[in-house]
Specification:
- It contains 3 helices and 5 strands, in the order ααβββαββ.
- By secondary structure, the protein is α+β, with helices and mostly antiparallel strands.
- Strands 1-2-3-5-4 form a 5-stranded mixed beta sheet, covered by helices on one side.
- β4 and β5 form a beta hairpin.
- α2 (16-33) packs across α3 (119-142).
- The longest helix has 24 residues, at 119-142.
- It is elongated and about 70 Å long.
Length: 176
C-alpha cells in the first residue's frame, strides 16, 4: 500500500496548512531580521507536546537554537450561531485552532568543574530570552495571515531548562 503525502500545506488542509506555513515564515523572518535567527530549524513540527530541545546548536554562524510552529488542537467555538450550514452533505464543525510558536536557545551551563556560570552571562541569557518573547509576540501579532482574524493569547511563558537549552513558548487561539 502506498501512503499519499501532501505536496503543499494547502493539500494537507486548505485552512490549517497555509496558516501554519505563513506563521512559520513570519516567525523565521522576525527572528532573523532582529539578528536572533536560528541555525538548525525553523519549522512546522508534529506532535502533541513541544519538540525536544535536540537542535539547540550553540556554534552555528547563522544564529543558534531552533524555532517552531505547531498545531496543538482544535477546540469548539462557543460563540452563538450555527456552524454555517452543510457543505456537500457534510456537517461543518465550528472550531478555533490552538497554535503554538516557540524558540529554544543555548544558555550558559556549569563549567568543567561544576562552577555556575558568571552572573553577567546568565543575565545575558535571560535578556535574550525576554527579547525572543517580544519577537515571537510581534511575529504573531503582525503576521498577515492573521490580519482581521480573532486571535486570543492563551499563554506566553518560558520553557523548562533542558541541558543547555531554554526558551519561550506562546500558545494562542484563532478563528483563521
Amino acid at each position: 500500500m502506498t501512503i499519499a503525502f501532501p505536496a503543499t500545506p494547502a493539500e494537507a488542509d486548505p485552512v490549517l496548512g497555509p496558516l501554519l506555513n505563513q506563521l512559520q515564515v513570519c516567525v523565521c523572518f522576525v527572528l532573523s531580521e532582529a539578528g536572533r535567527g536560528v541555525c538548525t530549524a525553523c519549522s512546522i513540527v508534529p506532535g502533541d507536546v513541544r519538540p525536544p530541545a535536540d537542535r539547540c546548536d550553540c556554534s552555528c554562524a547563522r544564529g543558534q537554537g531552533q524555532a517552531w510552529v505547531r498545531w496543538v488542537r482544535d477546540q469548539p467555538y462557543l460563540a452563538g450561531g450555527t456552524a454555517g450550514g452543510q457543505k456537500r452533505n457534510c456537517q461543518q464543525f465550528r472550531t478555533t485552532k490552538v497554535i503554538e510558536v516557540g524558540v529554544y536557545r543555548c544558555v550558559s551551563s556549569p563549567g568543567e568543574q561544576g562552577e555556575p556560570p558568571p552572573v553577567e552571562v546568565r543575565e545575558r541569557d535571560a535578556l535574550g530570552l525576554i527579547m525572543d518573547r517580544r519577537l515571537i509576540r510581534q511575529a504573531v501579532a503582525c503576521c498577515p495571515v492573521l490580519r482581521g482574524k480573532r486571535v486570543e493569547l492563551m499563554s506566553l511563558e518560558p520553557t523548562p531548562l533542558r541541558g543547555n537549552c531554554a526558551g519561550v513558548v506562546m500558545q494562542f487561539s484563532t478563528d483563521a
